[in-house]
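ok trying this again, last paste got cut off
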Amino acid sequence: MAKLSQDDLLAQFDEMTLIELSEFVKAFEDRFDVTAAAPVAVAAGVPGAPAAEAAEEQDEFDVILLGAGEKKIQVIKVVRELTSLGLKEAKDLVDGTPKPVLEKVAKDAAEKAAEALKGAGASVEVK
């Protein structure tokens, strides 16, 4: 029997129906005692690997205003500087805390906004 190249095998698979290909995979698994399951579960089970490294690094952050503190007017001014809100909308946002001030912004922008709000006396959380 002549040995088939990889391209020849792929050409044969191209001609198969999904049912035929499924049956072939089952027969291949039985004959060689292997499985066609994806090895993702093995990679996730590595002991000692921090979950943060396994997941993608977060690149979008939300700045959440938790409270205005004693300098509510200063916080409203900072909220207006950070957003395109008018005076009434900014006041409503500050009065209705906890509320997001900025959503899905870069890390440096979120940190700068949080520092500005904290400088005005607000309680802030970056998620």
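PB: full thing came through this time. The first helix runs from residue 6 to 14.
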